[in-house]
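Is adenosine-5'-triphosphate placement plausible here? Inputs below.
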Amino acid sequence: MPSAEDLENEIKKVDKELTKIDVEIRKLKKTQAQLQDRKTSLKNSLNQLKSDTLSNVDWAGTEYEWTQDVDNTLRNIFNLDSFRPQQLSAINSTLSGQHSIVVMPTGAGKSLCYQLPALVKPGITIVISPLVSLMEDQVRSLKNRNIPAMLMTSSSPKEETQAALNLLKDKDTKIKLLYVTPERLAKSKRFMSNLQKCHADGRLQRFAIDEVHCCSQWGHDFRPDYKFLGILSNMFQNVPILGLTATATSHVLTDVQKILNIPGCLIIKSTFNRPNLFYKILEKPSSQEDCLNILEKLLKYRYKNETGIIYTNSIKDSEELASGLRKKGLKVGCYHANMEAEDRSKVHLKWHDKHYQAIVATVAFGMGIDKPDVRFVIHHTISKSMENYYQESGRAGRDGLRAECVTLYRMQDIFKISSMVFSSVGVLGHLYGMVKYCITGNICRRKLIAEHFNEDWGSDDCNQMCDVCFENNINTKEIRLESHCRTISSILDYADQQDVKLTAQKLLDAWFLKGPVNLRHKGKSPDIPRILGEDIIAFLLVENYLVEDFHFTAYSTISYIKKGPNIDFAQDSDFVLNMPVRRYTAFELESRAPSCTLDKDSIKTTSQSLNSYNDEKNKTDSKKRTMNGSVPKSKKTKLIIIDDDSDY
Ligand SMILES: Nc1ncnc2c1ncn2[C@@H]1O[C@H](COP(=O)(O)OP(=O)(O)OP(=O)(O)O)[C@@H](O)[C@H]1O
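Reply from A.M.:
I modeled the complex. Tokens:
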């Protein structure tokens, strides 16, 4: 019999061995994780290489067996003369059986990329689309062209659903396009089984997945049922998938390929530059009444007789602004998610028919707006990301004529949005991207948008169509922030010692020696306008010198300001931090926007330019002359807040 001591010694030995094994396991796990990372990165590189190789093929060629049919269909059925850039590539690639993802800006003509091929080959195209109203519009317009199409949604009447299910089994069906929602596809076993029969009969031509970014968690409108679409590529071998989106960020595209099981597929991307949109940041007044006055002037004078959208971030704001504008005699509708679907449709229709000059809406007024002559999109509150801003402002000027995208920016709005969205991963970074767009005074706004889409547009691509480039307005003035940074840091330390939390407004007050005396710093009030102080706080947030700290009350979430990871650098003797000073350029609120003074010839030139983006450069040259040359020089209301000659 071993003694207790022997047994204890034996246990210690085993423990030692176990510890060794634990160490080995940890090492192996670490190596495993490293290998997994490496494998993922190699796979991504391989997929990228495959995509790049496919992209090098000239898909816009005109020697395919179907070229003649494609041409005839374009002219005779769609009544169009020519393709817009990338449409032909998308059509040829999908007709060649490639899985592809088409990335085009809103209004560039994605629908044609699957509607036209559907008519060129026998069989049915299944179009998966997230929005019923969008599908209804498309089916209606296809039927107007005598193109047999149907739709099947969760709310379709029984007979229609039955007819849609039957046509999948019917070898003699005339239907060429069947529109379904992803939810319908994911939830209907009968639909899937009939689809398999259709496939077995060789009649399933392709899947077109509209708004394909909805697959990705990173896309701006993620829809869980889109994930189900991952089974299509395995289940229906040799049926090409054509995904379409206006979301171009690379991690969304990689994610979409992964979810749809089509890694390394062809990506067809057209430029995101919208040369006919004029981008402008306007200083937002702090009172709602003053905001209303600006909106009133814009609608009554600058956009007289034109139609547009005013976006805001809350239902309350949309109702208040709409009623305020109505009191001023303007015809505006209100649109938000709390309204009944029927009321929303009515408002949409009245706006579409120009009974309303503008819709004051939350982002619920989104996908499916196919009105070509939206002349202005005003953001009463900033969007929650550049991605959203691009989508929302992109609803302007789809006819290719000049339209204006005006954003009313003020620091407080950052916190209105951040306290609503902070709980989701990564969104604060997206919001700060939007803030950077608003407060940057020395970089063309178009260039900032381009950076977001991994594109590189030079100032020629802007053609003075943003407030920074307008009349070569690029501002080179910078303000040094070293001492401001130290003061702000000391105010935050001081408040912390007193156990007081500061909102951005309170921080500003303390900095400008306003508000409670115990929170103020000991130095002088900064020799800059308060509005520039606001920009500095926003800049420090964007650059991680300050961070937001969220606290909950029974009624709301409050954003307080804390020192960020970079602020400690401010104590270094060689610390340097400069911020370009934003210059508020003149903006005529009470004169018609330049588009209204375009002569007929230049209007033709601009609208043709959308038909052929390739010719854009030549055409925008002439546009530049007419658009910018004709700005009326009125002496009426101008918004110039910061005097450019003042010294900071
Ligand atoms: N080759 C073309 N020539 C002229 N007009 C075209 C061409 N292709 C499409 N269009 C027109 O462009 C408009 C926008 O097209 P479409 O609705 O397909 O855009 P989209 O890219 O799907 O936009 P969204 O992302 O907002 O859904 C439509 O009125 C369409 O008829």
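Short version: The first strand starts at residue 100 and ends at 103.
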